[in-house]
Design goal:
The protein has 3 helices and 5 strands. It is α+β, with helices and mostly antiparallel strands.
Length: 161
């Protein structure tokens, strides 16, 4: 039978270096798995936010075209403010959209009557090129919506993909 003295000695012993190393190893393994997964999820969320905002700009331009009969001409479109979309009530989230862009403005806007093309780079991934368009200026194929340059090809961008 174990005496009171034996139990106190066992309880006062504490943890061994091997137990401590095991705990550190487990925490390290969990971190090694979790950190890349969380980083990927963060990038996917940022990507989805840029695509969603880009769809908002695209829809605002379509509404402008329905009302005016043409897209804003190149010389009347402000890359930094998105005017005339913002000044005429077609798009009210310009500040949020610009925060997600490299340099906080779109790179290029081309408006040619019944066609338009916007080129932008998202802040979360500066080497990514995105397009918002209703045009056949790219690769001779008609694009209508939000697209990304992936492996040298222009592909439709969907928020969940």
């Amino acid at each position: 039978m174990e005496s009171v003295t034996d139990r106190n000695t066992h309880a006062e012993r504490g943890i061994t270096i091997f137990e401590l190393l095991a705990v550190v190893l487990i925490i390290t393994l969990i971190a090694a798995i979790a950190i890349p997964v969380l980083a990927h999820a963060r990038d996917q969320a940022r990507r989805g936010a840029v695509i969603a905002d880009s769809h908002g700009v695209y829809k605002a331009l379509l509404r402008y075209n329905i009302d005016k009969g043409h897209f804003p001409p190149t010389d009347e479109f402000e890359k930094a403010t998105l005017a005339p979309l913002t000044t005429n009530g077609y798009y009210d989230k310009a500040a949020s959209f610009k925060e997600k862009l490299l340099g906080e403005e779109i790179l290029v806007y081309i408006g040619l009557g019944e066609q338009f093309l916007i080129i932008l780079k998202p802040k979360y991934k500066p080497d990514q090129v995105m397009y918002i368009g209703h045009t056949n200026l790219l690769e001779g194929d008609w694009i209508d919506g939000v697209y990304m340059l992936v492996d040298g090809r222009v592909v439709k961008a969907e928020a969940g993909s």
